[in-house]
Specification:
single chain, 30 helices, PPR-containing_protein, Pentatricopeptide repeat-containing protein, PPR_rpt
């Protein structure tokens, strides 16, 4: 179509009639969207060849084409051409180039270019503030925001929301509220997304009451909460351990006429299962299946139930649940069961191969897959690989319980790295995981093998203080070590061998 128009243009020129600048610009605008190089050739040969240099609108079209194709260097050359011809680049041309710079991560260069502008407008500030927010350069973003307010401009709601998000991520929610109020007082638009950002910020800080107050405030200002508002609050209640409040909020949604979506179910199921209420989480899962069904790619709620069963040491029930998932997620379950089977048979290479294939295709392994692989790697002495899996497990929100840590502790002890094992026990406590007897027993055995009875004895005392009973391997190792350390015990005045035997009988 464009080529036909150009042919007509050539025909008109042959009859000595020159098309108007408006017609040239219209054709140029279409060409720019198709191919910037063709558009530039049209400008040079057709427009300039006809004695039409163009105006700022012409150069604006060319700048748009260059920036759309990220030819920023050519954009700057175009600016120089304009200035050399006495044409002052307008605000739109500058903003187009600014946007391209920010989109390509050159926000500092964009800020320098802004200084050349005679009359920056609200779009100018929106572009630059958004650029700084994308790079999380909060100070620069706030400085520009202040300048924006000083010049009488109000950023659009998208830009404001980006600033609020960066502030809230930095924990500076009170400042975010202040900016929201300033925008509103200057007649700017504030929507539900902006409010949700603030509410999410308060929820992250555990200030749920303030978050609820913000919901009431937005309602008073005529901005109604949506499903995302409720999802944020449910997530906040779950993170704060206020599971009853999370369930109440879930029920309030139905009362308020807000439909539950997948995120609602996913958030609440995960919160309940992580909080030790797997039975309640399973009920919500059944409700989800009845309400919105199950679709491929939405395996997370099911993995949350598996995680809940894992945390409650109900691995047999977890295996049954995993098997029953096959009707919804045949591929994922088939691979998971293959991994578990290979681990059980001690064929680590096959298990790791299926796992890698699963990850490569974007799959989400369940906590039991990680748990079994970690155990198998530790048995083979591959502790580095086991730790990598542990980290992946945590990244996916599956925090290990004692039985998973114990595999690593035993692995260290088998390699004679008892110091590492003890540090891992301490790390467990730091991660909120309470060590059990299985965490200490291999350490006691390993210390006794190293004939370090003093440390082994201290570990046993720690166990007894925590109400944990050493197993027969630990006691046996301790007695063997004791038989070689009787003189040391008596010199320390701790107790004699028969006292230790009595302690074993009592426990």
């Amino acid at each position: 179509m464009v080529r036909q128009v150009i042919k007509v243009l050539d025909l008109v020129s042959r009859f000595g009639s020159r098309p108007s600048l408006k017609i040239f610009n219209s054709i140029l605008d279409v060409l720019v969207k198709e191919n910037i190089d063709i558009a530039r050739e049209f400008y040079r040969k057709k427009m300039m060849g006809s004695g039409v240099d163009g105006d700022d609108y012409t150069f604006g079209i060319l700048m748009k084409g260059l920036c759309l194709t990220n030819r920023i260097a050519d954009g700057f050359k175009l600016l120089q051409v304009m200035k050399s011809r006495g044409i002052t680049p307008n605000t739109v041309i500058y903003n187009t180039l600014l946007h391209a710079l920010c989109r390509n991560g050159k926000v500092g260069r964009a800020r320098t270019l802004m200084n050349e502008m005679v009359e920056p407008n609200d779009v100018t500030f929106n572009v630059l503030i958004s650029g700084y927010c994308a790079e999380e350069k909060l100070v620069q973003a706030l400085v520009l925001l202040e300048k924006c307010f000083t010049l009488g401009f109000v950023p659009d709601v998208v830009t404001v929301t980006k600033v609020l998000e960066v502030l809230c991520n930095a924990g500076r929610v009170a400042e975010a509220v202040e900016i929201l109020e300033r925008v509103g007082s200057r007649g700017g638009t504030v929507d539900v997304v902006a409010y949700n950002t603030i509410i999410k910020g308060f929820c992250k800080l555990g200030k749920m009451k303030v978050g609820i107050r913000m919901v009431k405030e937005m309602e008073n200002k005529g901005c109604l909460p949506n499903v995302d508002t409720y999802n944020v609050l449910i997530s906040g209640f779950c993170e704060s351990g206020m599971l009853d409040s999370a369930v109440d909020m879930f029920n309030d949604m139905k009362t308020d006429g807000i439909s539950w979506n997948f995120t609602t179910y996913d958030t609440l199921i995960r919160g309940l299962c992580c909080g030790g209420r797997t039975k309640d989480g399973y009920k919500i899962l059944e409700l989800m299946e009845e309400s919105i069904g199950v679709s491929v790619g939405r395996i997370n709620p099911y993995n949350s139930v598996l995680y809940g069963l894992y945390k409650e040491n109900r691995s047999d029930e977890g295996l049954v649940f995993l098997t029953n998932m096959e009707k919804f997620f045949p591929r994922a379950v088939d691979r998971s069961l293959k991994i578990l089977s290979s681990c059980k048979e001690g064929i680590l290479e096959d298990a790791k191969g299926v796992y890698d294939q699963m990850i490569g295709e974007g799959g989400a392994p369940s906590v039991f897959v990680y748990h079994h692989l970690i155990h198998e790697f530790c048995k083979e002495g591959c502790l580095l690989e086991a730790f990598e899996l542990l980290n992946q497990m945590i990244v996916h929100g599956h925090y290990p319980i004692a039985s998973t840590f114990n595999a690593l502790i035993s692995g260290f002890c088998r390699l004679g790295k008892v110091g590492n094992a003890l540090r891992l026990v301490e790390d467990m406590v730091g991660r909120g995981c309470v060590p059990d007897a299985g965490s200490y027993n291999p350490v006691v055995v390993a210390l006794c093998l190293e004939r370090d009875f003093e440390k082994a004895f201290r570990v046993v005392l720690q166990m007894v203080e925590k109400g944990l009973i050493p197993d027969h391997f630990a006691w046996n190792s301790l007695l063997v070590c004791l038989s070689q350390q009787t003189m040391w015990l008596e010199s320390k005045g701790i107790f004699r061998a028969n006292n230790l035997v009595q302690c074993i009988i009592e426990t």
